[in-house]
Amino acid sequence: MRKILRSVSLIVPLLLVLLLLASLLTVFKAPTYHLWLLAIAVTEFPLIFVGITGVLTIACCWVEKYQSVSVMIGMVTLILFISPVVRAYVASSAIKQNFNKAFGPGSTIIKGDNTQPVFNFAKLLKGAGQQLPYSVLTYSNINKLTLDFYPARVGGKKPCIIVVHGGSWSSGDSRQLPELNSYLAAEGYNVASINYRLAPQYKAPLAIEDVEQAFAYMRQNAEKLNIDTNNFVLFGRSAGAQIALLSAYNRPQNGLKGIINFYGPADMVWGYSKPASKLVMDSRAVMERYLGGTYKAVPYKYFESSPIEFVNKQTVPTLIIHGDNDVLVSPVHSQKLDTKLAKYGVKHYYLRLAWATHGFDYNINGPGGQLSTYVVERFINSVCK
Predict the structure, then answer these.
(1) Do 337 and 266 touch, CB atoms closer than 8 A?
(2) Which of 6-15, 58-67, 236-245 ranks highest by mean pLDDT?
(3) Side-chain half-sphere of 84: how many Cα atoms within 13 Å?
(4) Rounded to the nearest 10 degrees, how much is the dihedral formed by the CA atoms of 291, 293, 299, 303?
(5) pLDDT by residue (tens digit) across 337-346?
(6) 154: which of 55, 186, 206, 348 is 20 to 30 A away, CA to CA?
């Protein structure tokens, strides 16, 4: 028995110290790639870490040495792990009001109901969300490109959300983070999550042309797919957000009513000058593969691929969502885009999540996932009237 207690006395404090170090990722930016992945877990699945820390803190009652220090470490760690939940709750109180300021009174009302909470503690206990069936359709026979089509679960012609996945322009596919696709389909929107040609084999602006082909396919098959061609919304994450933004700003399509930007690089010139840490990602190499060379070799490609350069008074309404602790795509991209849109009087809303990192929406029911899902749905409802 004494040996067991002695082992507990050594193991519990050590585990609490490790958890304390992990909990710091709710406040500070991740310094390496693997710690970035851990940061997503600790900020968007906080109750798991709160539970583990709570059990270990209680176990300190059987710790012979360093008991008071261990309890103190446990309490601090608990506070840090729960902080994303508290910060999401605090942020949620102003979202409805601020969104209404951006898009007009009543823009947060869905189906006549303005009582839906922005943030719900009970949802933190839920899983990743429902998975609705979808169809795989070929939208470009020449380039053999497919999309996953989630039909609206409400009858009649409905708006269509075209989703462009992330993956540093060289990886990823249409199955990336599908939970929001199912959620939007259940709420009465058609969703088309597309694949596009990837770097380094295919370089900019070919991905933009693929988006245009997707629009053409949707129009040609609008009757069969029950698509309202007067109400399209582009949606992109990370590299996919750069593609979606550039398409919306530089090559706007008929019927396009808005663009949703999840942590996308809006200024490729600035992004190349201020790269991410190589311990996380070699962002310059990523951009060079996509654009075909260094900034010194092909500066015009960086300019032509910067969505921020094409903002004007006719730019479609924009929703920006970015975490301040993003270590892959700096939140400065979104701050600069927010300023540029405001300068030209473009309707837009910028949701800043102080604790969140890149890919925070991996959990649709996490603190960041709940807030972002709320504004995404309100944005679509507002622009697709």
Answers:
(1) yes
(2) 236-245
(3) 36
(4) 10
(5) 999 999 999 9
(6) 348
- Note the helical H segments in 230-316: 239-250, 268-273, 283-291, 299-304
Whole-Å CA distances, 84 to 41, 46, 116, 367, 382: 11, 7, 21, 6, 28
Integer Cα distance of 168 and 40 in angstroms: 18
Of 112, 71, 68, 108, residue with least CA distance to 92: 108
Helix (H, G, I), strand (E, B) or coil at 1: coil
Q: Say if residues 314 and 250 touch (Cβ distance below 8 Å).
A: no
Contacts of residue 29, defined as CB under 8 A and 6 or more positions apart, other chains included, come to: 39, 325, 326, 327, 357
Residues of the chain within CATH 3.40.50.1820 domain(s) are 94-383
Q: In whole angstroms, how large is the CA radius of gyration of the chain?
A: 22
First to last CA, the chain: 69
* pLDDT surpassing 90 at residue 127: no
Position of tokens 């603190």?
367
pLDDT in the model for residue 64: 60
Helix axes 67-103, 367-383, angle to 10 degrees: 0
Q: Indicate if the pLDDT at residue 378 is higher than 90.
A: yes
pLDDT at 1 over 50: no
Q: Contact at 8 Å (CB) between 42 and 50?
A: no
The Cα 249–Cα 314 span in angstroms is 9
**Residue 164: pLDDT above 90?**
yes
Q: Coil, strand or helix: which one is 104?
A: coil
**Run of H or E including 263:** none
Element (H, E) at 69: helix 67-103
Whole-model pTM above 0.85?
yes
* pLDDT for position 142: 95
Fold of 94-383: Rossmann fold (3.40.50)
pLDDT at 197: 98
On whether the CB atoms of residues 171 and 201 are closer than 8 A, the answer is no
